[in-house]
């Protein structure tokens, strides 16, 4: 009688199955999974791999992730449930046990409680830049890599900042609001060209560097502050410390992640250090700015204006109110002149969402189908070249384990009766990840291999793909 497939265990340690070897090409080539490769003029197609337990993989996508991503993942034969809104922690705890993967944007929070309830969860995709909405350490310890899209919406955010700079300097939103109220108020006092003004960029990453180029094209001087030394683009100049940038810039724009050291990095002291009549723009994370302190700086006229696209607390869905029940100071902020408020739309363009959907959905599929963790933010980056259709009965072992001595020896002892054609292992912090391709493995041996490896003392998650 043929051996019966083993079901995925619902509690740790867990088991399921994949493979790819450390490429020798560029990082750009590594991020794009090659569907085929040529050898001596013969095109060899990669073999499609499946979990040996034969359980259909189910994906949960939230927050109106692009339809292109949904279509791509369904084309991979995954079952995809797609929702337009974020889910609360309680809702996630109820739903997540049924899914092997989840895709979110910035409003859904994957907490330790959610991860502990996710008995089948293999991977998390953040269809955005930030990953602070996910408990990355807990996910890694559970054997769950997290992927994001670190640069796909960079251009969209940079263009929005340019629009905000011009709109603030011309008091455009204020004049437009007055005219909609029936008031004609043509004036030039306090309105400026941006040419010749100084833009201070805090965080010179993907967005900050693109913004730098666009601003110089408008004739602005660009200075930037970053915690590491970076090569400037164009005529931009790095300054240190942050106070030097605040004192010199006419416009200060923030492009930093939310970390313990960046929460309220712009507060009363920093606002007082900014030039009188300058402007503050925040399209990064809501908790980076102390909003009550900003309101005070605007009311005192020390700052001439501000633009905010992100807030410490944000409504979970479109159509919800943005009032004092969301943030206690919301109504005061909304009443201030020359303040641009937008509902976290920095990356909300058709182009950005299409590219984000493509990048993250492909990363999810590569991990589920082949075990590749290239691009994971909380996990060792491991990859193996694809198994081809001509290679016969090959099995890919995907072994997530605690990073401790003796694990590889123990696993390789189990694999010793077989031909290990390729193998690659790496670690990150307390978590290590091994990929290995094994040749000529019978169906009976597949089940035995998985059981043996999953019982090793350091095992977190073992998947086998065949």
From TrEMBL:
Residues 60-378 form the D-isomer specific 2-hydroxyacid dehydrogenase catalytic domain. Keywords: Amino-acid biosynthesis, NAD, Oxidoreductase. It comes from the Eukaryota. Residues 163-346 form the D-isomer specific 2-hydroxyacid dehydrogenase NAD-binding domain. Pathway: Amino-acid biosynthesis. One of its GO terms (molecular function) is phosphoglycerate dehydrogenase activity. InterPro entries: ACT-like_dom_sf, D-2-hydroxyacid_DH, D-isomer_2_OHA_DH_cat_dom, D-isomer_DH_CS, D-isomer_DH_CS1, D-isomer_DH_NAD-bd, NAD(P)-bd_dom_sf. One of its GO terms (biological process) is L-serine biosynthetic process. The keyword Metal-binding does not apply. PROSITE patterns: D_2_HYDROXYACID_DH_1 (PS00065), D_2_HYDROXYACID_DH_2 (PS00670), D_2_HYDROXYACID_DH_3 (PS00671). Belongs to the D-isomer specific 2-hydroxyacid dehydrogenase family. This is Phosphoglycerate dehydrogenase.
